[in-house]
Amino acid sequence: MMRLFIGLGLPNNARDALYNAVSALGVRGRMTRRENYHVTLAFLGEHDEKLNPVESSITAAAQTCAPFALTVTGFGFFGRRDSALLYAKLQASRPLQTLADTLRTLLSEAGEPFDDKPFAAHITLMRKADLTAADLQTPPPVAFTADRLTLYHSARVQDVLRYRPVFETKLG
């Protein structure tokens, strides 16, 4: 069994800018490794190794959408301020929402289960963050182009959480 999710990766320059912005906050917590920054479109959870229906759904969804721009607009958090999940907010994007909706519809039609919580576009930056004294200023402008859809395997490798691409296809 593999723990899987489908998402959009970030280019290195966007990862670096976000990592530097979070580091500058001086907040205590568990930082997300910059290599793991992504936007989750569908969380599949534990899955066997028969991935053909998932890969077909990803390919079909990607073909419906051209590459598009995404922009970080600030910081936000889920949970309590003293033990929060800190994330980067993304500017509302019709192409992103449509891609997520299309992907989820195709997964459903293929009989592939996924977490059906409403899609909330964000990039997780830190867990168990103590934001009680933090001033969540707007980070430096970060923009990037989403140009590929990726199936990730979430696994601990030598006690480090890594998101490894299993399958990837270009948008458009």
What is the strand and helix layout of this fold?
Layout: E1 2-9, H1 12-25, E2 30-31, E3 38-47, H2 52-63, E4 68-78, E5 84-90, H3 94-109, E6 122-129, E7 142-146, E8 148-157, E9 160-170
Helix pairs in contact: 2-3
Number of domains: 1
**SS strand fraction:** 35-45%
Discrete helix count: 3
Assign an overall shape: globular
Average pLDDT figure:
94
From the N-terminal CA to the C-terminal CA, the straight-line distance is: 31 Å
- Report the CATH topology name: Cyclic Phosphodiesterase, Chain: A
What's the level 1 CATH class? Alpha Beta
Radius of gyration: 16 Å
User: What is the correct CATH architecture?
Assistant: Alpha-Beta Complex
Sheet with the most strands?
5 strands, antiparallel
Give the neighbour order of strands across the main sheet. Answer: 2-6-5-4-7
Strands, total number: 9
Give your account of this protein's structure.
This protein is an alpha+beta fold and 172 residues long. It has a single domain, classed as Cyclic Phosphodiesterase, Chain: A, CATH 3.90.1140.10. Helix content is 24%, strand content 42%. It has three helices and nine strands, in the order E-H-E-E-H-E-E-H-E-E-E-E. Helix 2 runs antiparallel to helix 3. The protein is globular, with a radius of gyration of 16 Å. The two termini are 31 Å apart.
In short:
The protein is of the alpha+beta class. Helices cover 24% and strands 42% of the residues.
Features:
24% helix, 4-stranded antiparallel sheet, alpha+beta, 3 helices, single chain, Cyclic Phosphodiesterase, Chain: A, 5-stranded antiparallel sheet, 172 residues
